[in-house]
Amino acid sequence: MRKASQNAWGLPLPPGPPRMPLVGNLFQMPQVDPWIVYNDWAKKYGDITYLEVLGQRIVVLNSVKSIANILEKKAVNTSERLWMPVFDLLKLDWSFPFMNYTPFWKAHRKHFHQHLGPMQMEIYRPIIEDQTLKYLRALVKNPHDFRLQTRSWLGLTFMRLSYGINDAQWNENLIVKAQAVNQGFSEAAIAGRYLVNSIPLLRHVPAWVPGAGWRKRLEAVGELSREVSRVPFKQAKEQVDLGKVDEDISLVRRLVDDLPPETHPSYEERATIARNVAAIGYIAGADTTLSALYGLIIALAMHPEVMAKAQNEMDTVVGADRLPQPEDYERLPFVQAVVKESTRWHTVGPFALPHVSKKDEVYEGYFIPAGTAFLPNTWAVMHDPERFPDPMSFKPERYLKDGKLNKELLDPEFGIFGYGRRMCPGRFLAKDIILAHFAMCMISLFNIKPGRDEHGKEIPLEYKVASEVICTPAPYQVEVRPRSAKHATLIG
Ligand code: HEM
């Protein structure tokens, strides 16, 4: 095999911390807040930092410039994915976020976009509004249970929107399984957690071999993965075929309506794509969106002065006689600034998902071999003190200029949804429909305060995240109560 440092141009690899033979930088890989460590390394080694872990080449991209140049301008070459051996055991081959940049992946994106693109959002509004109203009522009844209620609302909304089955029990059963798949993935993806990622041959060790209990656990998650990608689609399709459907239009109904006749040569492939597209909504969308909502609420609870200002804007623009409507959002610059600032301040995916190159690449005089995994340090971009002075503070005002949104400041939408051709295709649903609607309802209808202990003393709020692929604010307690009896009446 050609060595990483050999290339026809005789160019050097990008700079990075010194590597040990065979293991490379394995023992220097940060386990806690890696985004901060990489950002510090960037000060020493420069904007792009080269690392190697057990033969896997990694380039961390620490600025808007390198991310845009490598993941966007060179996207044709840098849109592959890293397939980890553990994914075989988790049976994630149906999941298009992990597929390489192939025509099959493109077909998934195309169908996803056709049904969940910006022009399609109105179609799903009835389901979202119905589920949201149920959620707001549940919050009124359970003022201390914000996190659980929110998780349940999002899960039920995604499942109903995907499969069109308006049966809470059916959806909850499915959520438990899909959640186990997400959990299995998050754990398995942590570098160094499973030896099988470093020694792929281990995936052939049978589960009954003593000491191979890890394999049994992963295989059990793999079974669930197969089940959530197939069974609900089959059941929902049967309902559609029998004409027994939720009166509100779901993703499956639209995907099934679009399928060619079963006798058509492309039927099998199209049905597989439809199944995979329906199944990805919850898997890719629930935890990410939930993390963003948890981030927004802890930010508001920790900053009562921001909440008061946002409520004031809601009162002026919407008033207290009706629920906020989607079209109100445009007329709420401060609320929009709050949402933008919360997604900057709490960066849900600090490294997006790794992009991988297909061919050798040359960037600013450095050689980057084929197969390199690029980690865009979105956290560093969102906390760059040059762009966002005092970046650790939550200051929505930074997005405003003369009372309007400041278009000169980098919009967190560059970054939080990833980059180039792999950019999150669920962003329209996440930001325009769920996040915007949620923010307006929570701000206008509720007061959000830190929770209290058994002596009635406020429990101080602390914003902390674990170092995972999707960073969710660590458990915190808040009290969410309607602002007045009139506000409670609006919820019904
Ligand atoms: C606030 C909520 C969300 C955030 C922050 C988020 C963020 C991301 C990020 C960072 C990526 C990786 C992009 C890259 O590799 O450059 C991604 C990919 C993806 N997201 Fe989202 N996402 C959110 C919500 C959703 C929702 C609601 C859905 C589905 C309905 C969804 C579906 C997907 C899919 C299918 C991919 C894989 C795209 C591909 O590899 O081609 N996401 N998302």
UniProtKB/TrEMBL annotation:
Pathway: Secondary metabolite biosynthesis. InterPro entries: Cyt_P450 (IPR001128), Cyt_P450_CS (IPR017972), Cyt_P450_E_grp-I (IPR002401), Cyt_P450_sf (IPR036396), Cytochrome_P450_fung (IPR050364). Heme binds at C424. This is Oxidoreductase A. Its cofactor is heme. Keywords: Heme, Iron, Metal-binding, Monooxygenase, Oxidoreductase. GO terms for molecular function: heme binding; iron ion binding; monooxygenase activity; oxidoreductase activity, acting on paired donors, with incorporation or reduction of molecular oxygen. Belongs to the cytochrome P450 family. Pfam families: p450. It comes from the Eukaryota.
